[in-house]
Design brief:
Helix content of chain A: 10-25%
Largest sheet of chain A: 6 strands, mixed
Distance between the termini of chain A: 51 Å
Strand order of the largest sheet of chain A: 5-1-2-3-4-6
Pfam families (chain A): LSM (PF01423)
Strand content of chain B: 35-45%
CATH class of chain B: Mainly Beta
Protein name (chain A): U6 snRNA-associated Sm-like protein LSm1
Largest interface: A-B, 39 and 34 residues
Structural class of chain B: alpha+beta
Number of strands of chain B: 5
Subcellular location (chain A): Cytoplasm; Cytoplasm, P-body
Radius of gyration of chain B: 14 Å
Number of domains of chain A: 1
Family (chain A): Belongs to the snRNP Sm proteins family.
CATH class of chain A: Mainly Beta
Radius of gyration of chain A: 20 Å
Largest sheet of chain B: 5 strands, antiparallel
Helix content of chain B: 10-25%
Distance between the termini of chain B: 11 Å
Strand order of the largest sheet of chain B: 4-3-2-1-5
Main location (chain A): cytoplasm
Oligomer: heterodimer
Order of helices and strands of chain A: EEEEEEH
Number of helices of chain A: 1
Chain lengths: 127, 93
């Protein structure tokens, strides 16, 4: 199981194959970005050109344009190669940026409401 | 370097990576680097309905720091060899 030096690629070059490709980037807070990878380093700090944030709520999705983004590596969970023309999630319908933001806020409000109700009912000790 | 070496022997095998955000991804191990960043090919996400954005992803790079478990195929690791290698490494090569 010994490793000879020639076999070891330079540290942090694993992303070289993904340069100039359209990628889906998942961040630690659950956000999903799509864009073209232009640069990276050994920490997986990234430069993404033409980035959009993709928000999915129920059966709908929408993209919020962000432009050129630098992402600090510690926030990166994974990068996935997106096949050309196949970036739209199947079975979901695209809506405008404003519509998806509204839908996301609606969902947040609903979740907040649900958790306050649950908190108030806590004394009932329901499972 | 022991675990890096171990993962290098597993290249090409089918593995399942469980991330700290509970996402489970199966795929063929394509490569590993010294940070234990993992590249998978021909990936499949468990519970795909919950992660619709992953449906169009077939190859992915996973940052080592977000990995919780790597599930290996049974018999993929020779524990005897690993045991010896561990002792050798502990003695300083």
């Amino acid at each position: 199981m010994d490793v000879t030096l020639q076999e070891v690629p330079l540290p942090g070059t694993a992303l070289a194959e993904e340069l100039d490709q359209k990628l889906l980037i998942v961040l630690r807070d659950g956000r999903k970005l799509l864009g073209v990878l232009r640069s990276f380093d050994q920490f997986a700090n990234l430069v993404v050109e033409g980035a959009v944030e993709r928000i999915i709520v129920g059966e709908q999705y929408g993209d919020i344009p962000l432009g050129l983004q630098v992402i600090r590596g510690e926030n990166v969970v994974l990068l996935g190669r997106v096949e050309d023309g196949k970036d739209a999630p199947e079975g979901l319908t695209e809506v405008s940026a404003q519509a998806i933001k509204d839908a996301q806020n609606g969902e947040k409000e609903l979740n907040k409401l649900k958790s306050t109700i649950r908190a108030r009912m806590d004394f009932l000790d329901m499972e | 370097m022991l675990f890096f070496s171990l993962f290098k022997t597993l290249v090409g095998k089918e593995v399942t990576v469980e991330l700290k955000n509970d996402l489970c991804i199966s795929g063929a191990l394509h490569s590993v680097d010294q940070y234990l960043n993992i590249k998978l090919t021909n990936t499949r996400v468990h519970n795909e309905q919950k992660y619709p954005h992953m449906m169009s992803v077939r190859n992915c790079f996973i940052r080592g720091s977000v990995v919780r478990y790597v599930h290996l195929p049974p018999g993929a690791v020779d524990v005897e060899v690993l045991h010896d290698a561990t002792r050798r490494e502990a003695r300083g090569g």
